[in-house]
Design brief:
The protein is α/β, with parallel strands linked by helices and 340 residues long. The protein has twelve helices and twelve strands. The strands form two sheets. It has a seven-stranded mixed β-sheet. Strands 8-9-12-11-10 form a five-stranded mixed β-sheet. Helix 4 links the parallel strand 4 and strand 5. 49% of the residues are buried. The structure holds pyridoxal-5'-phosphate. The site of pyridoxal-5'-phosphate has 14 residues, from helix 2.
Length: 340
Amino acid sequence: MALDRSTIWPYVDGAAGELYYSRYDHPAGLTAERALGKLDGGRALLYSSGAAASTALVLGLLEPGQTIALAGGGYYGTPLLLAELRRFGVEHVEFDQAGRPPEGADLIWLEAPSNPFLTFPDLPAAAEHPARVVVDATASTPVLLRPLEHGADLVLHSATKYLGGHSDVLLGALVCRSDADWEQLKRVRGLTGPIAGPDAAWLMLRGLKTLELRVLRQSETALELAHRLDAHPGVELVRYPGLGNPLAARFMQGGFGGLLSFDVASGDAARTLETSTRVIKNATSLGGVESSIESRHRWEGDRVPEGLLRLSAGLEDVDELWADLEQALARVPERSERRD
Ligand code: PLP
């Protein structure tokens, strides 16, 4: 579609039409929201980043005195954001998302699969809980998982990752099952102003054209790399939902997503490895067409093992990626004993 960057549209016979001021709606945003809503089976709203979508969810749907049960081991920015929002009276507790969410929570916040531990939520157990359930499905995308079909009330995406897909757009989204949640979130978005701009929405529309092809290919590549890493003597542990996780098994389509993580023996080994790859970029984030790898300890500290490396599989040839990992692994010391 042609990109319209207008912030205003003329009134129609003296009255505001569907489009009048871009803090509420603009053509690329509406088109992209319809497309994502269709993919996820709900009603979508776009935000200027995944973090903005997370903030909007808390400000829009929760009250002071309420508690969020947050999946432990998920995107490290989410508990940091929720700690900041504690000033407004919303508490959070972390729990193991492979089990039952705690009683008394007012919002269950899952991540499928979690970044960077790659755990998978027990969706039926969460759906039985009386609270609203949100699933951060950034790393699975609607190609692999449509959480609203499994009892979730909301889906959260950092569209910066797979939905955009080319590491060139910062974008977030919420997809709602209920009209009431969508209307409330849309009202608060209009008041607080974190709507995604037209360029970002347009870039997501471009990304959606190849989403399925990319995600299926990246899943296949990640599964193959996970198997080869698992068999390599320099690797202590591989985390990937496609390696026998029963909660993820029913959603598998030749692998489950392009994201995996693995541990080498130490922080030094991880740093050697991440700076030795030639094809795989030593960079943060995930979900782009080019593969990237990084030690997560630099950001997450003792929340993750020092030797943990997160790898986002891109669209390069799997043998080329493996050759790159193999030559980088050859520079790190071999494991002493396996933990799995
Ligand atoms: N959720 C997950 C699972 C993420 O990985 C990220 C970012 O890495 C976010 C949310 C936040 O998204 P953004 O960086 O677009 O604000």
